[in-house]
C-alpha cells in the first residue's frame, strides 16, 4: 500500500494536537484611531507577558470573542501583576509591578493610557471568555499593538530601530510558556543580520509556535545580505506546529538564500503548519533586482498549508516553495496552496524527492515554470492536483521530468509562450487532464504545445478530455514512448495540428479523413467533427 494511504489513519492518530480556532478581531465601538494597526487573526494562546515598567491598555468589545478567564479576578496578566475586576465599573486596584502612573485599562473608547489613571480606569464589565487586541506603552514611551496573547518583540529588546533583532527574537522565544505561544512583530521593518533558528523542544509533545506580524507589507522582517537560511523553525515532536502569518520577508541581496526554512525531525506526522498572508520579495520593490533563491523550504514536514501568500522573483529567478522529504522513511505528505500568487519566478513550486500529495488551487502564476519535478527525484512520487488556477508560463506550466503517479490537472487557464508547453509530462504515470483552456499567448501558433506526453511509465492509464486548445502549433502531442492515453471530448480552434500520436496503445479521436469522433475542430465559426 502506497505511503499516501497512511494519511487517513495517521490523521486520526494525531488528534492529540491542539485545535486552534480563530476569530477575526474587531475594533471597539467608537474607536476610530489607528492604535491597533492589524488585521491579524486572534488565536488561543497564553496570557501576554510584559516587562515590569509597562503601561498597558487593553481593548475589548462586545463583538470580540475568544480567550477565557484572562480578565477574571486574580488572574495573572504578567508576572507579579494581579488585576481584579470591579463588576460594577471596570477595573479596581491593581498591584504588583504596576506603580503610580501606570495603569491597566479596559473598555470601548479608552485610547490614552499615558497618564496616571488611579484605582479605576475603564468602564463596563468584562464578559466571560472575552478576548481582543491590545496596545501598550513600553517604558520608553513606544506604543506597541497587536494580538492579545502574543509576546511583543519590543518587550524583549526588539525594535525597528535596531541594527539586528536576532537577540530579541531569541529572548522572546525563550520566554514562551511550556507549550509555546505567539511572538508579535508590530508595524515597520525589523532588521536581522544572521541566521535565526528557533528549535522547538523535543521533550514537549504539544508545542505551538506562532510568529505574527500586523499585515502583509505592514510588518517586514529584513535581511540586507544573502543568508543560507534567514529563519529556520525546527519541529521535533509529532504534535509540534508552526504558524507564520501577516508579514513580509525581504532581502537586500540578488539571490538572498532561503527566507523561511521549516523542518520536522519526526517524520510522517500530520500536526498542521500554516504559512498565511506572507510575502517573499526583494527589499527594492516588486520584481526589481533583489530576490530570495527560495521563499519557503519544507523538509520532512507533512500537512503544510499555504494561504494567501505571494512570492516574487525578478523574471527568471527564484523558487517560491520547495517541498521535499528526507528519505524512504521520511516522506513529506500534503502541501496545500490556496489563493497564492507567484510573480516573475523561475519555479513556483518545486516537487522534490520523497513527496506525496501537493495541491494548488485558486492561484495565479506568472514566470517560467509553475510546478516542476527535476530529473532524478527519488522515492514514490504520488498525487499532484492543480485546479482552478491562471498560469502564464514562459517555459512550462507543469513540467514533470520525474514522473508523479496520478496527476489531476483541471479547470486551469494556461497561457503558453512560443516554443514551450502547457503540461510537459515527460514521464507520466497516469492521471487526468480535464476542463482546461490552453491558449497561445501571442495569439499565433509558433511551435508551442498544449499537452505533451513523453514516456508513460507502468500500467497507469491517462485521460485527456474536455479541454480547449486555441491557436497552438500542436494541441496534444503523444510522443513515441506514450501508451494507454485516451484523448476524447476536446475542442480545438486555430491549431496547426489538433493532436499528434506517435505512441502505442493510445485511444485517440481519428483524423479528419477518418471516422468521426468526439474530438472536434472549430473552423470559421462552425463545429466540425473529425
Q: Write out the strand line-up for the largest beta sheet, numbering strands in chain order.
A: 19-21-23-25-27-29-31-28-26-24-22
Gyration radius over CA: 27 Å
Low-confidence stretches: 1-148, 510-518, 521-530
The coarse silhouette is: elongated
What separation lies between the terminal Cα atoms?
A: 42 Å
Multimerization status: single chain
The fraction of residues assigned to DSSP E strands is: over 45%
Largest sheet, if any?
11 strands, parallel, barrel
Give the number of DSSP strands: 42
Count of domains: 3
Helical/strand content category:
mainly beta
Q: Figure out the total of helices.
A: 2
- Helical content stands at under 10%
In round numbers, the mean pLDDT is 74
